[in-house]
Model the fold of this input.
Amino acid sequence: MAPATAEIIAAFENSKLIPVFYHEEEEVCYEVMKACYEAGIRVFEFTNRGEHARRNFAYMRDKKLAAMPDLFLGIGTIKSAEDAKLFAGMGADFIVSPITDASIADACKKEVIAWIPGCMTPSEIATAEKTGATFAKLFPGNVLGPGFVTAIKPLFPDMKFMPTGGVDATKESMQTWFDAGVVCVGMGSGLLKKDLIEKKDWTGLKAQLSKAVDIAKAIKK
Done:
């Protein structure tokens, strides 16, 4: 059974920094996840964005269970109830969507798995809240910006937010978002450097990730 939603949200808040990643090669997916884990990150979002997503997720899940038992491995880019059910059955710890869809919320409730809806407008946040969600992904973060968070926080005092996109692994970038009121930040290429991954420089990637983790830890919320 997947961890309780409260446990998942607490893990996101504690991590502050959430890697978001997809690659066609299963071994690359594993090595990136391992580098994140060794750098101290305990939440990892793999995205359902390519033809090998299911195969690679299954491979990562097996590796995680064997060597990283305290890592929360979830699946992102889930746009249908069917996919939510499929990946819940494959052992995902949580489900992340780029959209807010009540049918996905219902599927996740039936599967007893945490769902993190993606929102871009106050109406979508209100819809997510009506499904029972207390934690939402703000996407795309680069379009919305920290000012959006500052403006909507008073309207949704019981909702916690995580921007994905538009966040860099620098103190200035992360601090701006946390000052606006988010509880964590999701990062893809801003955190997982493409050149290091292409060179399969896992030592270099781990070192770069460790710096980002140290920056995140030092940020006051």
Observations:
- Residues 40 and 214 are 9 Å apart (CA to CA).
